[in-house]
Design brief:
Layout lengths: L1 H16 L30 H12 L1 H5 L2 E2 L2 E2 L8 E2 L13 E2 L11 H8 L21 H12 L6
Antiparallel strand pairs: 1-2, 3-4
Helix pairs in contact: 2-5, 4-5
Bound molecules: heme C (HEC).
The site of heme C (HEC) has 22 residues, from helix 2, helix 3 and helix 4.
Length: 156
Amino acid sequence: MIKSGLAGALALVGLSACTPTESAAPAAPAAEAAAPVEVAELPVAEDPVARGQYLVSITGCHDCHTAMTPTGPDMAHALQGGPLPFAPLAEMPWAPIAPSIAGLPEGWTEAEFTAFLSGGPRPSGVPVLPPMPPYAMNDADAKAVTAYIASLPRAE
Ligand code: HEC
C-alpha cells in the first residue's frame, strides 16, 4: 500500500515534468487502438465530499496520515495521524510523525486548509518538512479535499 502510493506520487512527479512534443509516436489506427483503461468514475464537483474522498484516495494522504496495519491503512481512524512506518536512507530534513488532519488540524479554518493544499504556508508560518509533499491543487480540488477531511471525526 505504502509502496504503491509513493510510487504513484513519484510517477505523477515524473509525468508533470514531461511536456508534450511533436515527436510523440503517431496515433495508432483506430482499428488497432487498445481497449480504453477502466478507471473509477471521478465524482463530480457538485458533491465536494465524495470528490474529496476520491482525491484523498489517489493522492496518498492515507499512506502517511493514517496508521498503517499489516493489511493497509487503519481506515477506522482515517487521517488521525501517527508515526511514519518508513524513514529515509540518507540524512535529510524529515518529520517522523504525520499529524492528525481528520476534522482539520486544531485551530485551522477551512480557508486556511484549502490555501495550504494550494501551495500556501501553514497558518503558523512554520515550514512543513518532508516527506509531506508540496501539493499545488487547483481551487476546486483543494476545496473538495478540505470538505472531505473536515467531515472526518477528529482523533480522540
Ligand atoms: C509521504 C507522507 C505524506 C503524505 C503522502 C501526505 N502527508 Fe501531510 N504530512 C506528512 C508529515 C510527515 C507532516 C508533518 C510535517 C511537519 O511536521 O513539518 C505532514 C503535515 C501535513 C499538514 C500540516 C498539519 C499541521 O497540523 O501542521 C497537513 C494539513 C497535511 N499534511 C495534509 C496532507 C494531505 C491533505 C495529504 C494528501 C493530499 C497529505 N498531507 C499527504 C506526511 C505526508
